[in-house]
Design a protein that fits this description.
Layout: H1 6-15, H2 17-23, H3 25-39, E1 51-55, H4 61-67, E2 72-77, H5 80-89, E3 103-106, E4 119-125, H6 134-144, E5 145-156, H7 162-169, H8 183-192, E6 197-209, H9 212-221, H10 239-249, E7 259-271
Parallel strand pairs: 1-2, 1-4, 2-3, 4-5
Antiparallel strand pairs: 5-7, 6-7
């Protein structure tokens, strides 16, 4: 999916570290839906001896929530700026009085700097869509999981941001919006990783905006305005093109006076 150096993606998210949480309502809502079944384990299992991995931990928002369960949690991210922000914001002696200090690791999901059979659980929300090779990333997650270990992840699916894509298509034929894997491609990548139990579900999630510029500000605020492509990335275009796109987006305004941005989200549970 991505043909740019990973350093470009890491740089885009590092720059967005300070603004990410204020622009990431959709990311938080999606992550909480994934988190609920994970934290339900805390009610039935002793977790003090368990090690969990937050893969693509970003600002550490979910890393801290995972650690509140009592497990020892490692937050891993490709972007050094995100890790620096997380270390500064998520104190091991914070308001939740964590049982174990948080551990932070800079690393690539496709080549984890972690030992085999080291974790009881891997959690990853809206991070894996930035991998060049999803199958490789899932194989790495499988490798670092203990036998019977579980992985919970979300990723974006083809058809996400279809309104934005269609609006730009009314302006030019350049590449403005990230492309994502299809559900079939995600399922094939999961098969490569050889998990013994697989549950995949794709659900549409709609976020409403007063105008198209508000959507673009959120995408920039979370670092998702980086558009990797073999060709030159068109970016957001000049002012004229941007205005034309915003006008084209108006055709999607709904009865509530808002503009929808639809994401197709894959929710997954895997067992080694």
């Amino acid at each position: 999916m991505s043909y740019s150096p990973k350093s470009s993606i890491a740089q885009a998210f590092s720059k967005a570290a300070a603004s990410y949480d204020s622009a990431a309502q959709f990311q938080r809502d999606t992550g909480h839906k994934l988190l609920d079944p994970v934290l339900s384990r805390a009610n039935v299992e002793p977790l003090a001896s368990q090690r969990w991995l937050d893969l693509g931990s970003g600002t550490g928002y979910f890393t801290e929530l995972l650690a509140a369960s009592g497990a020892h949690v490692v937050g891993l991210d490709l972007a050094l700026g995100m890790l620096s922000h997380a270390k500064a914001q998520r104190s091991s002696q914070g308001s939740k009085q964590l049982s174990h200090p948080l551990t932070w690791v800079n690393g690539d999901a496709e080549s984890l700097p972690l030992q085999d059979n080291a974790f009881d659980l891997v959690f990853s929300t809206l991070a894996l869509q930035w991998c060049d090779d999803l199958g490789r990333a899932l194989q790495e997650a499988h490798r670092v999981l203990k036998p019977q270990g579980e992985m919970y992840f979300t990723t974006l699916v083809a058809g996400s941001l279809t309104e934005l894509t269609q609006a730009w298509q009314q302006v030019d034929d350049k590449h403005h919006v990230n492309a994502f894997l299809s559900q079939a491609e995600i399922a094939a990548a999961v098969c490569q990783a050889d998990f013994s139990h697989v549950e995949l579900q794709v659900l549409p999630e709609v976020v409403s905006y007063p105008n198209a510029l508000a959507l673009l500000r959120d995408l920039k605020g979370i670092g998702a305005n980086h558009v990797p492509t073999r060709a030159h990335a068109a970016g957001l275009g000049g002012r004229g093109a941007l205005a034309a796109m915003c006008q084209a987006y108006e055709s999607f305004r709904n009865d509530h006076g808002m503009l929808p941005a639809t994401y197709q989200v894959c929710y997954a549970k895997l067992i080694k």
